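BUG: 3D viewer hangs when loading the predicted structure for this chain

Environment: internal workstation, default settings.
Expected: structure renders.
Actual: progress bar stalls at 90%.

Input used:
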Amino acid sequence: MKHPIKIMQIGDGNFIRGFFDLAVEKLQVPCSIVSVAATARGKTVKLLEEQQLQFTVMERGLKNGEVVEEETTVKIIQDTIHPYENWPTFLQYAQSETLEMIVSNTTEAGIYYENIPYPTACPTSYAAKLTVFLEQYYKHFQGEKQVAIVPLELIEQNGSTLKTICLQHAKDWKLPTAFNDWLATLTFCNTLVDRIVTGYPQDYQGEDALYTVCEPYFLFVIDQKEPFKHWPTSHDFPFVFDDLDMYRKRKVAILNGSHILLSAFGKIFNYKTVREAFSHAGVRAFIEKITNDFTQRFQVDEHYQQDVFERFLNPFIEHQLYDIQLNELSKWQTRIAPYAETEIYYQALSIGIYAMNPTRFSVRESDQIIEKLTEIHNYFEQGQSEPMQQFIEQYFQCDAAEVIQQLSTITSLLEAIACDN
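Structure tokens produced before the viewer hung:
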């Protein structure tokens, strides 16, 4: 039995299908989805139509120490729209009596502002599309109905940012004050999503062109419960309704912070993947020590730390350290430096600085940053620590003397880590 279309999703890529669509399917939420292409070049709409609006998701990895491989056929999509080819059909959904929610995953680059005239055809910007759609929705229902907006894009305060841009478009286009007032009352959820979706596997030999692989781990943190108050719940698909700050902080520090540390160890000990580096006993012990420090200082649930470690050891995901090393300086700034108040964090920063020496290792940074790093390392090796101190104070804003002390004995620290195997 087909349920009414209650959700419109903007974006139809691997992530939204392996995260949101799969959750709706497995939770058996009594609704259907209309899937809308986010870009003009998108091909998923056509593929969905060729496959009778169905696709398969494989959850593959470790869960509680056991290997999991579970396929699910996702059937909750009931309609598709390519708005760049059929803009009026997209706007026609603004007259839907059953629509309750608009979900999006247009990537981090999808939520942006550009000052454009009122669109007469499908605009590139998601916020512009959404504003026009909401204006049509408001006019049809004369402000008597509302729809919840739930962005999944990986930017901080994604709902608040999207709402601000929509309000700016309404102002730019001189839309009626009554519409602006109504728009300001709509629920725009801020969210945090956490699941690795690797997409179409190279070793797949079936016929599903939209076959998608993801890890078993799933977390969806939302700052407002109202749009989901009637949804079923499940331990396997946790929807957490809470303030996002601590969830974001722990993800950045424990998951992403460990990633950037592992990327440095990869350079130093010649490892290629997250799993390979984390499988080294000395490296793992160091990662455990720094994440224990964070967990204890910020009173984080230790189960999250163990979940992250299990994800690192997923035998089905080859997470390349080379990819993490791109623009690594900014990653050390945001993932490690803000918590540098203890010896283990000073050691971590010293390892990061050591691994960002262009005369020793490949550094994937701009020419300007590479020149700066080369200069401070040359001075430091000549016994001049002042340029290094200024660099640490400028980029990491922590106790430079403590980091330099660790950096001066980095060889013995790395030998101890290497021997612990």
